[in-house]
Design a protein that fits this description.
The protein has five helices and 13 strands. The chain is an alpha/beta fold. It has two domains: about 110 residues, FAD/NAD(P)-binding domain; about 80 residues, FAD/NAD(P)-binding domain (3-Layer(bba) Sandwich), CATH 3.50.50. The protein starts with a strand and ends with a strand. Bound molecules: flavin-adenine dinucleotide (FAD).
Protein backbone atom coordinates (compact mmCIF):
# COMPACT_ATOMS: atom_id res chain seq x y z
CA UNK A 1 0.00 0.00 0.00
CA UNK A 2 1.47 3.37 -1.06
CA UNK A 3 0.70 6.02 1.57
CA UNK A 4 0.76 9.81 1.24
CA UNK A 5 -0.92 12.91 2.70
CA UNK A 6 -2.58 13.75 -0.64
CA UNK A 7 -3.15 11.32 -3.48
CA UNK A 8 -3.45 13.12 -6.82
CA UNK A 9 -5.11 11.41 -9.77
CA UNK A 10 -3.61 13.02 -12.88
CA UNK A 11 -0.03 14.23 -13.30
CA UNK A 12 -0.81 17.02 -15.78
CA UNK A 13 0.16 20.64 -15.02
CA UNK A 14 -2.65 20.91 -12.44
CA UNK A 15 -1.61 17.78 -10.57
CA UNK A 16 2.07 18.74 -10.68
CA UNK A 17 1.52 22.25 -9.32
CA UNK A 18 -0.71 20.80 -6.58
CA UNK A 19 2.43 19.03 -5.32
CA UNK A 20 4.17 22.40 -5.00
CA UNK A 21 1.34 24.10 -3.11
CA UNK A 22 0.86 21.07 -0.84
CA UNK A 23 4.61 20.92 -0.26
CA UNK A 24 4.57 24.47 1.10
CA UNK A 25 2.12 23.15 3.72
CA UNK A 26 4.46 20.21 4.43
CA UNK A 27 2.02 17.72 2.89
CA UNK A 28 3.51 14.81 0.92
CA UNK A 29 1.90 13.90 -2.41
CA UNK A 30 1.73 10.83 -4.59
CA UNK A 31 0.50 11.05 -8.20
CA UNK A 32 -1.16 8.42 -10.38
CA UNK A 33 -1.28 8.83 -14.15
CA UNK A 34 -2.43 6.53 -16.92
CA UNK A 35 0.28 7.93 -19.20
CA UNK A 36 3.86 6.65 -18.95
CA UNK A 37 5.22 10.16 -18.28
CA UNK A 38 4.07 13.21 -16.26
CA UNK A 39 2.80 16.38 -17.96
CA UNK A 40 -0.68 15.41 -19.17
CA UNK A 41 -1.75 16.96 -22.47
CA UNK A 42 1.41 19.11 -22.59
CA UNK A 43 3.73 16.08 -22.74
CA UNK A 44 1.49 13.69 -24.63
CA UNK A 45 -0.10 15.90 -27.27
CA UNK A 46 2.01 19.00 -27.87
CA UNK A 47 5.44 18.94 -26.16
CA UNK A 48 7.01 21.11 -28.89
CA UNK A 49 4.18 23.63 -29.26
CA UNK A 50 4.95 27.10 -27.90
CA UNK A 51 2.59 28.39 -25.20
CA UNK A 52 2.12 32.14 -24.91
CA UNK A 53 -0.25 32.50 -21.93
CA UNK A 54 1.84 31.42 -18.92
CA UNK A 55 2.56 34.27 -16.46
CA UNK A 56 6.24 35.20 -16.51
CA UNK A 57 6.98 33.32 -19.75
CA UNK A 58 6.50 35.31 -22.98
CA UNK A 59 6.92 31.99 -24.80
CA UNK A 60 7.62 28.50 -23.50
CA UNK A 61 7.42 25.08 -25.14
CA UNK A 62 4.87 22.80 -23.46
CA UNK A 63 7.59 20.20 -22.82
CA UNK A 64 9.81 22.85 -21.19
CA UNK A 65 6.91 23.94 -18.99
CA UNK A 66 6.54 20.37 -17.73
CA UNK A 67 10.32 20.11 -17.17
CA UNK A 68 10.15 23.34 -15.14
CA UNK A 69 7.19 22.06 -13.10
CA UNK A 70 9.09 18.84 -12.38
CA UNK A 71 12.12 20.89 -11.26
CA UNK A 72 9.89 23.09 -9.10
CA UNK A 73 8.38 20.12 -7.22
CA UNK A 74 11.63 18.15 -6.86
CA UNK A 75 12.32 19.48 -3.31
CA UNK A 76 9.01 17.94 -2.18
CA UNK A 77 9.93 14.45 -3.51
CA UNK A 78 6.51 13.35 -4.76
CA UNK A 79 5.87 9.69 -5.54
CA UNK A 80 4.60 8.56 -8.95
CA UNK A 81 2.58 5.60 -10.17
CA UNK A 82 2.79 6.02 -13.96
CA UNK A 83 1.24 4.00 -16.76
CA UNK A 84 -1.63 2.92 -14.49
CA UNK A 85 -5.23 4.12 -14.51
CA UNK A 86 -6.99 4.85 -11.20
CA UNK A 87 -10.09 2.70 -11.33
CA UNK A 88 -11.73 2.41 -7.92
CA UNK A 89 -12.00 4.57 -4.81
CA UNK A 90 -13.01 3.05 -1.50
CA UNK A 91 -13.60 4.89 1.79
CA UNK A 92 -12.22 3.24 4.93
CA UNK A 93 -13.58 3.45 8.49
CA UNK A 94 -10.90 6.00 9.44
CA UNK A 95 -12.29 8.25 6.65
CA UNK A 96 -9.19 7.78 4.48
CA UNK A 97 -9.41 6.49 0.90
CA UNK A 98 -7.93 3.56 -0.96
CA UNK A 99 -7.49 4.09 -4.70
CA UNK A 100 -6.71 1.02 -6.78
CA UNK A 101 -5.34 1.10 -10.34
CA UNK A 102 -6.07 -1.19 -13.27
CA UNK A 103 -2.83 -3.01 -12.41
CA UNK A 104 -3.92 -3.56 -8.82
CA UNK A 105 -1.58 -1.02 -7.15
CA UNK A 106 -3.22 0.28 -3.97
CA UNK A 107 -2.78 3.81 -2.62
CA UNK A 108 -4.01 5.13 0.72
CA UNK A 109 -4.45 8.80 1.68
CA UNK A 110 -6.81 10.95 3.75
CA UNK A 111 -7.27 13.28 0.76
CA UNK A 112 -7.75 12.43 -2.92
CA UNK A 113 -7.39 15.28 -5.42
CA UNK A 114 -8.75 14.59 -8.89
CA UNK A 115 -6.78 16.48 -11.55
CA UNK A 116 -7.89 14.27 -14.43
CA UNK A 117 -8.20 17.03 -17.05
CA UNK A 118 -9.78 15.70 -20.20
CA UNK A 119 -9.38 12.10 -19.12
CA UNK A 120 -8.14 10.17 -22.12
CA UNK A 121 -6.89 11.82 -25.31
CA UNK A 122 -8.69 11.05 -28.56
CA UNK A 123 -8.44 13.21 -31.69
CA UNK A 124 -11.71 14.51 -33.11
CA UNK A 125 -11.41 13.27 -36.68
CA UNK A 126 -13.08 15.10 -39.56
CA UNK A 127 -15.76 13.05 -41.36
CA UNK A 128 -13.67 12.43 -44.48
CA UNK A 129 -14.06 9.07 -46.20
CA UNK A 130 -11.04 6.76 -45.83
CA UNK A 131 -9.02 9.36 -43.91
CA UNK A 132 -7.64 6.47 -41.85
CA UNK A 133 -5.72 5.22 -44.90
CA UNK A 134 -3.77 8.52 -44.98
CA UNK A 135 -2.96 8.67 -41.27
CA UNK A 136 0.78 8.65 -40.70
CA UNK A 137 1.30 9.40 -44.41
CA UNK A 138 0.79 13.15 -44.20
CA UNK A 139 -2.41 13.30 -42.15
CA UNK A 140 -1.62 13.93 -38.48
CA UNK A 141 -3.74 14.91 -35.48
CA UNK A 142 -0.83 15.91 -33.24
CA UNK A 143 2.22 18.01 -34.08
CA UNK A 144 4.93 16.41 -31.98
CA UNK A 145 7.90 17.95 -33.78
CA UNK A 146 7.41 21.06 -35.96
CA UNK A 147 10.77 20.43 -37.68
CA UNK A 148 9.06 17.63 -39.61
CA UNK A 149 7.24 20.38 -41.53
CA UNK A 150 10.29 22.49 -42.42
CA UNK A 151 10.06 23.65 -46.05
CA UNK A 152 6.90 21.59 -46.57
CA UNK A 153 3.44 22.77 -47.68
CA UNK A 154 1.12 22.42 -44.69
CA UNK A 155 -2.68 22.57 -44.39
CA UNK A 156 -4.07 23.03 -40.87
CA UNK A 157 -7.77 22.37 -40.24
CA UNK A 158 -9.34 23.97 -37.17
CA UNK A 159 -10.30 27.26 -35.60
CA UNK A 160 -9.22 27.00 -31.96
CA UNK A 161 -6.06 28.05 -30.14
CA UNK A 162 -4.10 25.04 -31.27
CA UNK A 163 -4.79 25.64 -34.98
CA UNK A 164 -3.98 29.35 -34.62
CA UNK A 165 -0.80 28.85 -32.53
CA UNK A 166 0.58 26.24 -34.91
CA UNK A 167 -0.29 28.34 -37.97
CA UNK A 168 1.61 31.29 -36.47
CA UNK A 169 4.59 29.14 -35.51
CA UNK A 170 4.79 27.16 -38.76
CA UNK A 171 4.57 30.34 -40.87
CA UNK A 172 8.34 30.66 -40.28
CA UNK A 173 9.08 26.95 -40.70
CA UNK A 174 6.97 25.55 -43.53
CA UNK A 175 7.24 26.75 -47.14
CA UNK A 176 3.48 27.37 -47.22
CA UNK A 177 0.80 27.35 -44.50
CA UNK A 178 -2.92 27.20 -45.29
CA UNK A 179 -5.41 27.44 -42.42
CA UNK A 180 -8.87 26.04 -43.14
CA UNK A 181 -11.79 26.64 -40.79
CA UNK A 182 -15.42 25.72 -41.37
CA UNK A 183 -16.69 29.06 -40.04
CA UNK A 184 -15.88 32.74 -40.66
CA UNK A 185 -15.09 33.35 -36.97
CA UNK A 186 -12.24 31.70 -35.05
CA UNK A 187 -12.69 30.26 -31.55
CA UNK A 188 -9.12 31.02 -30.41
CA UNK A 189 -7.72 33.99 -28.47
CA UNK A 190 -8.40 37.34 -30.19
CA UNK A 191 -4.72 38.26 -30.14
CA UNK A 192 -3.84 35.05 -32.00
CA UNK A 193 -6.63 35.73 -34.51
CA UNK A 194 -5.09 39.18 -35.14
CA UNK A 195 -1.62 37.67 -35.58
CA UNK A 196 -2.99 35.19 -38.12
CA UNK A 197 -4.68 38.06 -39.99
CA UNK A 198 -1.38 40.00 -40.01
CA UNK A 199 0.48 36.96 -41.36
CA UNK A 200 -2.22 36.57 -44.00
CA UNK A 201 -1.76 40.23 -45.00
CA UNK A 202 2.01 39.61 -45.25
CA UNK A 203 1.32 36.64 -47.54
CA UNK A 204 2.75 34.17 -44.99
CA UNK A 205 -0.52 32.29 -44.31
CA UNK A 206 -3.36 31.41 -46.69
CA UNK A 207 -6.79 31.54 -45.12
C1 LIG B 1 -3.23 20.86 -28.74
C2 LIG B 1 -3.46 21.64 -27.46
C3 LIG B 1 -2.89 22.89 -27.30
C4 LIG B 1 -3.07 23.60 -26.12
N1 LIG B 1 -2.47 24.83 -25.99
C5 LIG B 1 -2.61 25.52 -24.84
C6 LIG B 1 -1.97 26.80 -24.67
O1 LIG B 1 -1.28 27.29 -25.56
N2 LIG B 1 -2.17 27.45 -23.49
C7 LIG B 1 -2.94 26.92 -22.48
O2 LIG B 1 -3.07 27.56 -21.43
N3 LIG B 1 -3.54 25.71 -22.61
C8 LIG B 1 -3.40 25.01 -23.76
N4 LIG B 1 -4.04 23.80 -23.90
C9 LIG B 1 -4.86 23.29 -22.79
C10 LIG B 1 -3.97 22.71 -21.68
O3 LIG B 1 -3.09 21.71 -22.19
C11 LIG B 1 -4.86 22.10 -20.61
O4 LIG B 1 -5.69 23.11 -20.09
C12 LIG B 1 -4.00 21.51 -19.49
O5 LIG B 1 -3.22 20.43 -19.96
C13 LIG B 1 -4.89 21.05 -18.36
O6 LIG B 1 -4.05 20.52 -17.38
P1 LIG B 1 -4.59 19.44 -16.37
O7 LIG B 1 -3.43 19.02 -15.52
O8 LIG B 1 -5.80 19.96 -15.68
O9 LIG B 1 -5.13 18.22 -17.26
P2 LIG B 1 -4.39 17.28 -18.33
O10 LIG B 1 -3.22 17.93 -18.96
O11 LIG B 1 -5.50 16.78 -19.20
O12 LIG B 1 -3.83 16.09 -17.43
C14 LIG B 1 -4.72 15.19 -16.80
C15 LIG B 1 -3.98 13.90 -16.57
O13 LIG B 1 -4.84 13.03 -15.84
C16 LIG B 1 -4.64 11.71 -16.28
N5 LIG B 1 -5.81 10.93 -15.92
C17 LIG B 1 -7.12 11.20 -16.17
N6 LIG B 1 -7.90 10.27 -15.63
C18 LIG B 1 -7.06 9.36 -15.02
C19 LIG B 1 -7.26 8.15 -14.28
N7 LIG B 1 -8.49 7.67 -14.02
N8 LIG B 1 -6.17 7.49 -13.82
C20 LIG B 1 -4.92 7.96 -14.06
N9 LIG B 1 -4.68 9.11 -14.75
C21 LIG B 1 -5.74 9.79 -15.21
C22 LIG B 1 -4.44 11.84 -17.78
O14 LIG B 1 -3.72 10.73 -18.29
C23 LIG B 1 -3.62 13.15 -17.85
O15 LIG B 1 -2.23 12.91 -17.90
C24 LIG B 1 -3.87 23.07 -25.08
C25 LIG B 1 -4.46 21.80 -25.24
C26 LIG B 1 -4.26 21.09 -26.41
C27 LIG B 1 -4.89 19.72 -26.56
Amino acid sequence: MIKSDILIIGAGPTGLFTVFEAGLLKLKCHLIDALPQPGGQCSEIYPKKPIYDIPGFPEVLAGELVDNLMEQIKPFSPGFTLGERAETVEKLEDDSFVVTTNKGTKHNAPIVAIAGGLGSFEPRKPPIASIESLEGKGVEYIIRDPEVYRDKRVVIAGGGDSALDWSIFLADVASEVTLIHRRIVFRGALDSVEKVQELKNQGKINL
